[in-house]
Design brief:
Chain lengths: 318, 322
């Protein structure tokens, strides 16, 4: 059990970036080339996705999201101790994205590094940052999830309609007032399900077992939600905002139904961005903040699941 | 009745099998943006119409023989056997620089083979399936034991780069299979046919040396070939629903989808290689088969339908088990 309450680590700033204009999925080549019917398109639950410019990197998107989060938090970039970048779609080992991203946002004193974790990357990033803030008595971290998921979708396949690009960032600060901040976080992995979603090393395109992926995505998130609520003595009624990971529209609807969450409490950008991997949770929070719909003091529950196989979740008071 | 009996040495094998596959794609890639700029259309228009996003283009000094030899090398390397066992080379091509000498004899010489039988087959887009059927026949009749079957085409030598009906479709490449005698037949009977009365819908003009096609007529014909593909399955004793994979000629994604729909395939893996290699004429089927096999998309021991169709008009197909 990971309990952060004594550390008073608050989420004090949010930022996001959706590259380029929203692109209506009905205009994508696959729709005409494969004669996809309007009813099938509607069932995807997506109107538009964003695609970054071919010359843009995951760092470019991440820098824009991180800058907004740092500004939103009112933090000077030079005060930032950690920049944790979550990315699974452009994973590179040498050099990692973190140091360059930290440098470009002016976090010159920060340690910048990457975590992976598939769609659970943001939660893994927050948990890693929180652990380091607590154990090293640091004050400020920026967790940036930046993904160019469209590049993992094989051209002219339905995958191109679902995979979007986006970055989301959250500033974490240790020592906020009592009662606010992270309450708990959880991460699980299950290598037995590693083959459910893989990226072909030659082509660079994703492959997955559609049915198994759907079943696991729902099942894993139900488990995470029950675990976080149960061990912290909360029920779903206590939650003000639920931020799930919607791998597909059916994952959200099934999850909401199985948990019995009030749909009005669900925050997601899925309809306007498609699946943006680990950027899904921080972008949903940041978009809410921009719309003035993220009230201080509200209890937020986030759940996620993804390639690895990973499951993860966060419980926090804003 | 003749009073002479012609001798036939040795036992005849029960059949043949594809022992190994290999393919070669030229390094240079021509994407939709490059073509769209030249012919004045939107890149997405090309992808929407054809499903093709890019094609590989051979270098000016890279020939059909070069590509065929590269693919053959890979197939032999994948087979792990001594190339010396190859006794026959068949190259399916319609775009070689010369008709004499044959591409096959040159490929055989490049591979350092000693006195193999070598000849070309020109049935265009159905060339690989037809050559595979011929190889199977040669092996079953005891003429050959190890046949190298290559599909190789360099259509880009014969394209008008301003003709939007062709330039958006065609690319270059080669695919090869080593076909060997087998105790169990793993290559089923070929079913084939032609419609010479419609020969003018795809031609390389004698005078202009340019490939032209009546796209609508070809599309209409090709999209309605599912009953013939079903006939191939029937002749091979396989229900379409039992196919692990369907590898049709890669001309256009919409034709491929129409054929798959016509065969009522659901769980069968359907080759859509055309998306990143375009139409490489006789090379589409072996390139797709080789790439799918590399990616582990073709389970061993399961039926795979190969089906080629195109200029001639001609078609051919068979069920194979890898």
């Amino acid at each position: 059990m990971t309990n952060w309450q004594g550390e008073r680590i608050g989420m004090v700033g949010f930022g996001h970036d959706f590259p380029g204009p929203p692109r209506p999925i009905g205009e994508f080549p696959v729709v005409a080339a494969r004669e996809i019917e309007a009813a099938t398109l509607r069932r995807l639950g997506i109107d538009t996705v964003h695609h970054s410019d071919p010359a843009e990197s995951a760092i470019d998107l991440g820098v824009r999201a991180a800058e907004r989060a740092v500004t939103d938090a009112g933090v000077d970039p030079s005060e930032v101790d950690l920049v944790v970048v979550s990315n699974s779609s452009q994973r590179q080992y040498a050099p990692e994205l973190g140091p360059r991203l930290a440098h470009r946002v002016g976090a010159t004193a920060a340690l910048g590094f990457d975590v992976c974790g598939g769609c659970a990357g943001f939660v893994l990033g927050v948990q890693t940052a929180a652990s380091m803030l607590a154990s090293q008595q640091l004050r400020t971290a920026v967790v940036v999830a930046t993904e160019q998921f469209s590049r993992l979708a094989r051209p002219v396949t339905p995958d191109t309609l679902v995979a979007g690009d986006a970055a989301g960032a959250v500033v974490l600060r240790r020592g906020v007032e009592a009662g606010a901040g992270l309450i708990d976080s959880v991460m699980h992995s299950d290598g037995e399900e590693a083959e459910v979603l893989t990226v072909d090393p030659d082509s660079g395109y994703m492959r997955y077992d559609h049915r198994r992926l759907f079943a696991l995505a729902v099942q894993t998130q139900v488990k995470v939600v029950e675990e976080l609520l149960g061990r912290n003595g909360f029920s779903l009624d206590d939650i003000d905002l639920f931020v799930p990971h919607p791998g597909s529209n059916k994952v959200i609807t099934d999850l909401v139904e199985r948990l019995g969450v009030d749909p009005d409490k669900v925050a997601s950008t899925f309809r306007s961005t498609g699946n943006t991997v680990s950027a899904m949770i921080p972008t949903a929070l940041s978009v809410r903040k921009d719309a003035g719909r993220l009230s201080p003091g509200s209890l937020v529950l986030a759940s996620t699941a993804g390639a690895g196989w990973f499951g993860g979740g966060l419980l926090a008071v804003l | 009745m003749s009073s002479f009996t012609l001798r036939h040495d040795g036992e005849l094998p029960a059949g043949s099998r594809i022992a190994a596959l290999g393919h070669y794609l030229p390094a240079r890639v021509r994407d939709n943006a490059e073509i769209a700029d030249r012919i004045g259309v939107d890149p997405d228009w090309i992808a929407s119409r054809t499903g093709i996003t890019q094609r590989h283009i051979a270098a000016p000094d890279e020939s059909v023989v070069d590509m065929a030899a590269a693919a053959a090398h890979k197939a032999l390397a994948n087979a792990g056997t001594d190339p010396g066992v190859v006794d026959t080379v068949i190259v399916a091509t319609s775009t070689a620089a010369t008709t004499i000498p044959s591409a096959a004899a040159q490929v055989a010489a490049r591979l350092g083979l000693s006195r193999p039988g070598a000849f070309d087959i020109n049935t265009a887009c159905s060339g690989f399936s037809t050559s595979l059927g011929v190889a199977d026949g040669l092996i079953r009749s005891g003429v050959a034991r190890n046949v190298l079957v290559v599909g190789a085409d360099k259509s880009t030598d014969w394209l008008d780069l301003d003709d939007r009906d062709t330039v958006i479709l065609f690319g270059d490449g080669a695919g090869a299979a080593l076909v060997s005698a087998s105790d169990t037949p793993m290559i089923g009977p070929m079913v084939w046919g032609s419609a010479g009365e419609s020969s003018q819908v795809i031609v390389i003009s004698e005078t202009t040396k340019v490939l032209t096609q009546d796209g609508r007529a070809v599309f209409r014909w090709a999209s309605n070939l599912a009953p013939l593909a079903a006939e191939v399955c029937a002749a091979n004793g396989i229900e379409p629903a039992d196919l692990a994979a369907f590898v049709p000629h890669q001309a256009n994604l919409r034709i491929i989808d129409a054929l798959a729909r016509g065969l009522e395939l659901s769980s069968t893996v359907v080759a859509t290689d055309v998306v990143d290699t375009g139409n490489t004429i006789a090379a589409t089927v072996p390139i797709a088969l080789s790439r799918m096999s590399e990616r582990g998309e073709i389970p061993a021991g399961s039926p795979v339908l190969l089906f080629g169709f195109g200029a001639g008009l001609a078609y051919s197909g068979q069920v194979v088990i890898l």
